[in-house]
UniProtKB/TrEMBL annotation:
Subcellular location: Membrane
Binding site for heme: C434
Alphabetic keyword roster: Heme, Iron, Membrane, Metal-binding, Monooxygenase, Oxidoreductase, Transmembrane, Transmembrane helix
Segments passing through the bilayer: none
Membrane topology: Single-pass membrane protein
Organism: Cerrena zonata
Protein's name in the database: Cytochrome P450
Record flagged with keyword Lipoprotein: no
Biochemical pathway: Secondary metabolite biosynthesis
Amino acid sequence: MLSLPLPPGPKGYPIVGNLFSTPKKMPWKTFHEWSKTYGDVLYLDIPKQPTIVLDSAEAVIELLEKRSDIYSDRTQYVMDELMFHRWNFVIMRYGPEWRTHRRLFHQHFNQRESMQYRPAQLRGSRDFLRRALDGSVSLGENLRLYVSVVPRVPLLYLTPPIFPVYTLRLFSRSYMIWTLTPMDNEYIHLSHDAFETASTIRIPGAFWIEFFPLLKYLPDWVPGTGHFKRHAKRGTELWTRMHHEPFDSIKQSIRDGKSGDSVIARMLETVRDSSDEQQEMIVRNVIGITYGGAADTTTTAAQSFVIAMSLHPEVQRKAQEELDRVIGPNRLPEFSDFEELIYIQAIVLESLRWNVVLPVGVPHRAIREDEFRGFRIPKGATIIPNLWAMLRNPDEFPEPHLFKPERFLTEDGHLNPNVRNPSTISFGFGRRVCPGRWFASAALFISISTILHTMDIHPIIGEDGVPYNPFDVEIDGILMNSENVPCTMTPRSKNVERLIHDWEASSA
Ligand code: HEM
């Protein structure tokens, strides 16, 4: 196979190859530009990190899906080692250790198990409303709390905990919010910061140490080492906390009899009678990553939805017509409304497509040499699927920059099976496909229907008179997260408070 040529790609310089021509910010856009010249499988000559970019769904399906026995590994970064977070199974090598972790995760988040978290997800969506009405936090923070807490609710409490909770004043009444504890709030920010440190190192060429690993032995005072050492120090601190704090605090509250049933409690149950420290470590690792893996990704998808709504009032109105017709003014949306809320389902799909959460996914790695379309894929190559390009392909999604849920519907208003479902791309591929996808999709469905049923979303207009879209600016790393959500929400009617209260009373 060695005689086969590498896939085509932009010409590089001697020794450094494409290192300097690969942009450090939003490289997916440049990858896509290059693919117009070199094709949908392109080779980047990055020192010590031969990289293949897959720019089409066809190429990704052929390699990452159909040949997943070869392409399910992950590239190992020196920076990951320096940040001490190799326990994180998202970045683990493909093999028995990864399999054991993934199996434990899957037991609790497979399609069937994910359904048991729906009551908690429903409650999370209503707590969001309370905070929105109260105005106690900004919209951006509320989304972060809401979407991040939703994954956490079942992780921490399937039944209300006994220990202290927040009380929030909403208009003249007080409600107990048992889904949000100060501890949750802290972990939301912790996981955001930790994932950010891991995200930035995945941009090719972001850290020189990947090409000169011996740099790690140099003392701190040597000029040029500050950048990666500072990053590694911060990453180590954050990832160590992620590894220990959620697990230890829940374990302690279970010991003290202060925690209700929870996924964590269930996972811990599997090691309760075991003296095997290895088993406990696996549970600790999985819990550490579950807490974080769910947060920023789902928050980003919810941010995209809110921003898209502020920019497309016509979509809001259409969705609200559907909600008024199916649900009416006297109750809030339920999961059982799913089948009838077709337009909302299309909005969920469009939210996953329009501003893809992870534009280059999480890169895979080729375990062994392979041949594709007459080209050689080198053993150990980093494989970057360009999700952004696939979800912005105008042949499949005409006018891809527009937020148009109608693209997923037939003329008579059903979901169109002939249009590619964006969740087959935005959640990744093959054996590494996101195992939290059922959970995340359910969280998005119930949040989107609850928000649109009760609130109107408005844009904040910039100085140039144009609504501000934070996703138009350049971001660092591989996650399309925005620090702020420049929109406002107002209740659609005075009814909203009563609806929440009625629901609260009926579920007490
Ligand atoms: C809208 C929300 C989400 C999006 C768009 C998303 C997207 C992704 C993507 C693109 C990957 C990489 C797949 C690949 O390697 O090809 C991934 C992996 C992963 N996701 Fe998600 N995700 C979301 C929500 C969640 C949630 C809610 C959880 C946990 C409850 C979760 C847990 C994980 C884990 C553990 C992995 C690593 C899997 C492995 O390497 O074996 N994700 N996700």
